[in-house]
Design brief:
The chain is an alpha/beta fold. The chain is 34% helix and 22% strand.
Length: 430
């Protein structure tokens, strides 16, 4: 065998797997047909979040007087699209080089090209035949095809100026994040979708908040194309489809076109695994990375359980949204006797200081033992704060553990403790 492990695709699932494999002493090859970092690092997660931060600062700059800062002419403020995109792409370049450094540091060989799987332990790339004991498919996904008059997110970044009118086709985090970012930057925005639930797989409580927030921000959710202005730029953010690699052997797909995998992320072909977007289990980068670590560790004999319910769902709106564990609807469907406890940011000192008081934390716990079953957060830094909930759930902590965890004051994270007290007895500051 030429290698212990071949990985096809160098996105967050693939490159994290490769780095871990190198750390564990596996002779590893990673094949990427475009750029190391994949869609997430180069055109998705990273640049889009940078643009969101630029738009948030643009909005906050118009409110500086309230914070005691004079001399800023609100009317003179303007959003420079090219500079914002340039800054975003600068971040991606820096991170991509960092990933390349880590791959080299850990002895991972990288080939640029498109891999074709020829057997259960071999591929061809750039007319080269390569064999390995195991293969991991991490080729990712792409937006479901749209109409000819729509452009991709990658093309959106290439626009010289922010369009006056924009319509985003699809639903999910990408659609709502970029729609809100564009609206904050000054565009008139619509979302074209055929569903009332903008974020698949989250609690109805969160979807209700998203709908109200979009309406408040004057972002119209439509399903009638006649309502779209003629000069609108149409951007495809539809739910994603798997990028299934070329293969001379039959790798089974599920009913939705993703590579079918078992609980160990094994495909129907012995020795071949599929991780990240390509297996359809999750569309989030951190889930793909965790799946990669799970597979590589298992190749080295580490027996673990993969529980995707304990992986956070993050939405980078303003305020941010995060969820982990079971939703209220799932608890009802599974017959749990549960309790909902919550605490609003409007009663939190640090949130008042920051001026970001929209949102709350909700903790879902089962009544008999108080185990934390799910957490939802709407807050400025919800995507960071959800890590605390992740720690609670990984340890099967109870609501009593949450209430007894000491939080520094003043911090926004104190809302966890308050929601814990609310479940046990009564919140202190509510």
């Amino acid at each position: 065998m030429d290698y212990d492990l071949i990985i096809t695709g160098a996105g967050p699932a693939g490159y994290v797997s490769a780095i871990r494999a190198g750390q564990l002493g596996l002779k590893t090859l990673i094949v990427e047909k475009e750029k190391v970092g994949g869609m997430c690092l180069n055109w998705g997660c990273i640049p889009s979040k940078s643009l969101i931060e630029s738009a948030k600062l643009f909005v906050k700059a118009g409110d500086l007087k309230r914070y005691g800062i004079d001399g800023v002419d609100k009317k003179a403020l303007s959003f420079n699209w090219q500079n914002a995109v340039s800054k975003a792409m600068g971040v991606t370049v820096k991170l991509s080089k960092g990933v390349e450094f880590l791959l080299n540091k850990n002895g991972v060989e990288t080939i640029t090209g498109e891999a074709v799987i020829t057997s259960e332990n071999s591929i061809t790339v750039n007319n080269r035949n390569i064999s390995a004991k195991n293969i991991i498919i991490a080729t990712g996904s792409y937006p479901a095809p749209g109409n000819e008059n729509e452009i991709s997110i990658r093309d959106f970044y290439k626009l010289e100026t922010m369009p006056e009118n924009i319509v985003f086709y699809g639903n999910g985090p990408v659609a709502v994040e970029l729609a809100q970012m564009s609206s904050m930057a000054g565009a008139k925005v619509q979302i074209f979708t055929g569903t009332d639930k903008m974020i698949p797989g989250v609690d109805d409580y969160i979807n209700d908040f998203v709908s109200k927030k979009l309406k408040k921000d004057k972002i119209a959710v439509i399903n009638d194309e006649s309502l779209i202005p003629e000069n609108a730029v149409r951007i495809n953010t539809r739910l994603r489809k798997a990028i299934v690699p070329k293969s001379e052997i039959k790798i089974e797909l599920d009913e939705n076109g993703f590579i079918a995998t078992d609980e160990k992320l094994r495909t129907n072909i012995p020795g071949i695994y599929a991780i990240g977007d390509v297996n359809g289990r999750s569309a989030y980068a951190h889930a793909g990375s965790a799946q990669g670590l799970f597979v590589v560790n298992s190749l080295k004999g580490v027996d673990a359980v993969l529980d995707l319910r304990k992986y956070p769902t993050n939405v980078y709106m303003y305020p941010e949204i995060a969820q982990i564990g079971m939703s209220e609807q799932e608890l009802i469907a599974d017959g749990f006797d549960y309790k909902v406890s919550s605490f609003p940011l409007s009663a939190n000192g640090k949130a008042l200081i920051n001026g970001d008081t929209e949102g709350e934390v909700r903790i879902l716990s089962e009544k008999k033992y108080g185990e934390v079953m799910g957490v939802q957060i709407i807050a400025e830094n919800a995507t960071d704060m959800i890590a605390e909930a992740s720690a609670y759930m990984s340890l099967e902590a109870t609501i009593y553990d949450v209430a007894s965890t000491i939080h520094a004051h003043p911090t926004v994270s104190e809302i966890f403790m308050e929601a814990g007290f609310e479940a046990v007895d009564k919140a202190i500051h509510k």
